[in-house]
Amino acid sequence: MGCGDLCDSQGVMSGASEHMIALVDCNNFFASCERVFRPNLVSKPVVVLSNNDGCVIARSNEAKALGVKMGAPAFKSERFFAHNGVHVFSSNFALYGDMSKRVMDTIRPEVDDMEVYSIDEAFMVFEGPAAEERARALRLKVEMWTGIPVSIGLAPTKTLAKIATRIAKKMPEMKGVFALRSPADIKRALQRCEVDDIWGVGHRSASKLKSFGITNALKLTLADPGWVRRNLSVTGVRLQKELQGTVCSPVNDAAPRKKNIRTARSFGAEVKSLAGLKESVGTFAVNCAMKLRGEGSCCASVTVFVSTNPFKPQATQYHGARTIKLDVPTNDNLEIVAAAMRALGEVFRSDCTYKKAGVLVGDIVPSNQVQLGIFDSVDRSKRGTLMKSIDTINAQMGRDKVRLAVQGFDRRWRLKQERLSPCYTTRFADILTVSV
Amino acid sequence: MHCVQIHESPSMKSKMKLKWCPASDVAFDAVPFFDEGVQAGFPSPAEDHLDLDLDLNSYLVQHPSATFCCRVEGDSMVGAGIQTGDVIMIDRSLTPQKGSIVLAVLDGEFTVKRVDVQDDKLLLIPENPKLKPIVVGEESHFQVWGVVTFVIHKV
User: Fold this and answer.
1) Which residue in chain A is spatially nearest to B85 when comparing CA positions?
2) Contacts by A346-349, CB closer than 8 A, 24 or more apart
């Protein structure tokens, strides 16, 4: 007891030169984005569906209270939604991406270090005193500037910050911010955190831990490290240390360059013909090339994969993939599409009906480190200018306005997005209209 | 002709400023002009004097992550130079002052009005003599979505 008090007081005393890791998590992010531009939906149930309007991927608190589950298939819930006045949106990633950028840009100047972890989460560092006060001010700022409500958890490590954020979300009296600081607080929080809810513990590790009687995070911190290493490998040991308050995974400012870039979609309607597949694969390839140019990279391999519908077991099942290696790394639409078309030609089987296809570009190198080939016949500076012009026009006029003929004009394979909201922040034709 | 007419919106009527710059005022007249005798490869003497292009974004947008655009329909704010079809810039980072023109949400609906406080009552004031100010009742849901900073009007 006395020892516990001592630890506590030391923890508070060392507050003057504190280094706290915080996690900002946007509340019900996709649903919140839709609401910013539809204030009439505040305090109404809102859900957002996955690509192709498949299943529920975001729910407002009101939708959660109605019992709508994450991953609920949309077609089965149609009547429930209508009956309960649930507002349903197709996912609008152009909007969510822009709102995410706004949230991150609003946070950045207020913190000492920052790592954007996902579209709606970022780790940050608060150095020095008053971390919790700064976090509260930051939360208000983000909501004022962007309209997106966020929760913030603070703790000595990322894994603990994740737990703190859950508490900030679940307990309204915390007003969106919760700091796990004193050993006693940490102990209590770990005791209440089930192993399934620990960041980085997957389904299988969780069942393994439970079968050994390790049901909550506190029990994991007390387990023998040798046993943890044998059963959960080195990842488990790092996890254990993080839960004990030792930083194993620091907040990393520089995002690592992507190892590969992938664009894949399930089709709204199944596709049988090679011509139909060419359109979608061509568009995915252009998409990958655009992403490469966006981060200043080139790729040296292009992979195309196709698959049939696994939910139609009576039809011929087929999953194929083919990779084409490029002599000179590139981010040029024409070259990447040409490689993708070759790969598609090799992977295509005419006796199947396809539900999904994708393009993956790999062996990525920075554009300025590209080794030119001796027999290279492409005028790279000219083509670079062409790509820049295409990107500029498409940025102004709309995606894929300038496109290769192979991308086609008939887009039946495209996403099913029946309840798509306007791209309020990224397209002039879509900006909010207000009657005054 | 497509021209961007920009007025700073707070207290727009009194401070509408459109300044013409005569061509002779432009900084480039300080640059000597060589019309002959310059060999190919001679570095342009203007190079050191080149300025960045005028960037309308930096003029119109002070806080990029908090700034949104929206299109206006209706004539309740014509007196403030906001007309049907205009695009207004809204900055959410600004705190509305008495007299600010704001994009507000009143009972779930968007509106653009000038805000004022009189006798402890919050008023939404249209800029059109045909319309009357709206008193925001205590029972109604009212929120300022953002402060209007610019109007972009196509002439």
Assistant:
1) A433
2) A346/A322, A347/A304, A347/A305, A347/A306, A347/A320, A347/A321, A347/A322, A348/A274, A348/A277, A348/A306, A348/A320, A349/A318, A349/A320
**ipTM, 2 dp:** 0.71
Closest CA to A266 of A151, A413, A166, A156: A413
Confidence bin at A184 (pLDDT 50/70/90):
very high
B14 vs A305: CA distance, rounded Å: 64
Q: CB of A95 within 8 A of CB of A61?
A: no
A410 and A403 in contact (C-beta within 8 Å)?
A: no
DSSP A55: B
Predicted TM-score of the model (pTM): 0.70
CB contact under 8 A, A102 and B145: no
Which of B2, B62, B63, B65 to mutate: most A Cβ within 10 Å?
B65
Beta bridge partners of A262: A360
In sequence order, the 6+-apart residues with CB closer than 8 A to the CB of A42 are A35, B108
Which tokens hold the place of A193? 């955190």
Tell me the pLDDT of chain A averaged across its residues.
86
Edge-to-edge strands of the sheet including A46-49?
A56-59, A46-49, A87-89
| Cβ atoms of A406 and A279 closer than 8 Å | yes
> Residue A431 corresponds to which tokens in the numbers above?
């900006």
Average pLDDT over residues A386-412: 73
Residues of A in contact with B65 (CB under 8 A): 101-103, 105-106, 145-146
Cβ neighbors of A242 (< 8 A, separation 6 or more) are: A157, A158, A159, A160, A248, A249
Contacts of B87 in chain A (CB under 8 A): 428, 431
The single residue listed with the structure tokens 């206006």 is: B72
Q: Which residues of A touch B110 (CB under 8 A)?
A: 39, 432, 434-435
pLDDT at B5 over 50: no
Residue A165 has pLDDT above 90, yes or no: yes
